[in-house]
Specification:
With about 180 residues, the chain is mostly helical. The chain has eight helices and two strands; from the N terminus they run H-H-E-H-E-H-H-H-H-H. A two-stranded parallel sheet has the order 1-2. Strand 1, helix 3 and strand 2 form a beta-alpha-beta unit. Helix 6 crosses helix 7 and helix 6 packs parallel to helix 8. It is elongated, with a radius of gyration of 22 Å. The mean pLDDT is about 75.
């Protein structure tokens, strides 16, 4: 159990050094159990922190500051990816010193060295997504159903999957007459 930030930082550095060494090291096996236990000789390590924008504002703030403080890579082969909805994250900050959107934007810049914005889905992209999900799950939906799913839920692919799950559950109740 690590109780001091310095211990965590030392432990994390030790893990990184072991991961990037070219010789298998017994200590790494104690830290990381991947496949056969050997994780040495890596060229790049990508660490992803997801769903921070869905956390309570205090926890989101704490996570961002912890990541920035303790996981700032000293090794150029370590990349941290933090996918967030910056709009949701900005709404989450209840800090008096960050009351303006401009202040919140500047505050987030301290944490993110690079920002990649994903463009909104086009209508055709969502139709293809709806069609692919239906095919992968062996759902024989008519094009009209696929069109409805993709246009009604064009902003959120998760809603399409949820709709399909609901339809599948409903189908169990009606058997062949569905």
């Amino acid at each position: 159990y690590l109780f001091a930030p310095e211990q965590f930082q030392e432990c994390f550095t030790e893990i990184l050094n072991a991961c990037f060494s070219s010789n298998p090291i017994e200590k790494v096996k104690n830290f990381l159990r991947v496949g056969n236990g050997s994780v040495s000789g890596l060229k790049k390590l990508v660490i992803v922190f997801d769903n921070i924008d869905r956390c309570h504002h205090d926890l989101a703030y704490s996570l961002l500051t912890d990541i920035k403080t303790f996981l700032a890579p000293t090794n150029k082969n370590v990349i941290f990816v933090i996918p967030v909805d910056d709009g949701a994250l900005k709404k989450n900050f209840k800090n008096d010193s960050c009351s303006e959107d401009k202040d919140k934007e500047e505050f987030l810049r301290k944490f993110f060295n690079m920002v990649i914005r994903i463009k909104p889905y086009a209508e055709m992209d969502m139709f293809e997504f709806a069609k692919n999900v239906a095919v992968e799950n062996k759902m024989n939906f008519k094009p009209e159903t696929l069109y409805f799913a993709s246009s009604a839920y064009s902003k959120n692919p998760r809603r399409i999957i949820q709709l399909y799950n609901n339809l599948e559950a409903e189908k169990l109740n009606y058997e062949e007459s569905f």
